[in-house]
Amino acid sequence: MSKAGYYGVNTEFPIYEDQTVTKTKNLSIADLDSFFLVTNGTTANTMWDESDATDATGKIKLVPGNIGVNSTTATITLQTVRALTGVVISGAYYTESGYDKITLSVAGSTVLNSVSGTSAQANRWSGSLAKDAKIVLTYTKDGSNHATGEANTAFYIACDDITVTETAQVKVGSTYREVARKIENGYWGVTEQVPKYEITTTRTDLMKDNADSYLTTNIGTADPWLVTSMSTGRLEYCINSSSSNWKANTEYDLFVMVDKALKGVKLTLIAQFTTSSANNLLSLTVAGNTLYNRSGTDVPVVSVGGAIYQTYSIGDVAAQTSIYLKYRTAATGSVNGNPNTVSLSFTEGYEETVTKTYVGTEEKDVAHEIVKAYFGDANGIARQWFSKGTKVTYTGTSSFEPITVDGVAYNLYTLTSSGTLTVNGPVNSFLVGGGGAGESTPSRTSTSCRPGFGGGGGWVTTHALEAGEYAVTIGTGGTASGGSGGTTSITAGGASVVSVYGGNRRNTGIVAIGTGGSGGGVNNEYNPSSSSWSSNGPASYYGNVSTIPFGISSLDPCSAGGMAGRVFAEPWSGSGGTYYYGGTGGSNGAQGQRGSTSFMDPAEKGGGNGGIPVDGNGGNATFYGSGGGGAASAWYTDKTTAYNLALETGTGGSGYQGVVYLLAPA
User: Between 20 and 30 A from 568 (CA), which of 15, 67, 159, 467?
Assistant: First the structure.
């Protein structure tokens, strides 16, 4: 039984009084409410992002939040809360000429009236503003296309500094009193040898020879695409102009899936048509964003010898990012032995690998918690006045690492296989059930085509264990189509102490002891008979509780939901078929998302990725309690049955096993 201890502390109590103070403020985000009352949009796509300018103080930067998002309007209104002098409004815009428009009004007067196109940085308005004057900025985008350089659109506001008078509590002195404080946790400092690591970063360039390690490519069984190497050794996809497979009015698609995260990606698109360019269709889409779309009337951004020659600096690209190049030949005329040129090359791109290497030890001061404390009485006998601490042993597979929480040293134990646990005092446990498997592709009918849903994360709970011996069972991950994960449990003498269920598809149909994990992603359903889309079934179920062990921010959340599979419906209709990205599984106890035609982030840590129309299988989960990815589905009305069967179905990914974490004083 633990004993409480107390110690006396001469404690300072500050004395405050209200005083009037005068401050000088310059325009900044931190003090924005001293200058303006700001009314901004309610969602990311209707707001303007606010930040401090980097080139000068007393200046803020405003960037429309709907850059790259079609059919949206972002508006911000800044109403002065006092008279301002030396106001300067400057800005630059790069918008689709005639379609995406900027409007600026100042104190009721229109400064920029639905302007579009390209205009470099320049002063737009300057002067003084009375109290309650309004500055209104609006960016309205139409339903298609984005200007090159649109991301550089930004406006700036600067003004003279202001002087404000405020009432603030000011410390004017202190008083001291003796206060008895209970010892909740006691520590002493120990100089120890701790592991020392060296961090190295390695760069591996994406080349033609190693492309299979980074990319999954679908070029079709009959489509005449070639995978070649540039003079630099970089990867290039180009059409085979000597192929006999070319046909008029036919679509030839190139689909590339990025399997590993890449940095500094740069793509170059080259096309030259010897037949009428108005009869050739070409579009390039990356992560759901259309970078190029030629319908025959578009003017190339860069023209070299009559050819399209465009380079796109994509930057960092996450795993599961799709790159989609569509090329459709002219509707009339013979194109066998097609002399047209179309190519897409990765002119830059690399993987950055960070390696942590043990290089020895170093001395550091580490706080250790006091387990027991004694004092000597008048007879020279040691009397215990404080006790706390726990020893942990385990027969199954486990690992242990020292961890510091709020400056205090603990031991974190990770139990990954079943075994016998023995503790000599209180210890806190965190249980995670096995993750559910992703759903395989459901049967396809003339009225239903949908992908598999992501597997739900295993349920989680915490429980305080007292001294004793316990049997620990670790839940297995679900397998096959939508199989549930196994239960993780702790028993003592054959009686249940605590347990949590494993996750299943969408975490439905479970009454759990404990709290639910994250929900698996879901997606939409295509009806081939009516050529229509609809939401399928209820939204993802979820636990709505943190799955981070003990709430320690340095630890990764468990029980991520698996990502739903992707679903695609063709044929080409001038702008392509409809493509729904799989809904991302939830993380940290959150609800899984429903699929969208806009690109969705890859699966959360540990959750299996959804299947894609290149490889229909869902990905296996990779972290404790996480759900597997759902399988893909597709409907190709103008492809052969054999082509359908090769791409449209798959098996759901497996869930990952459960785990038990223990947190004990070091």
Answer: 67
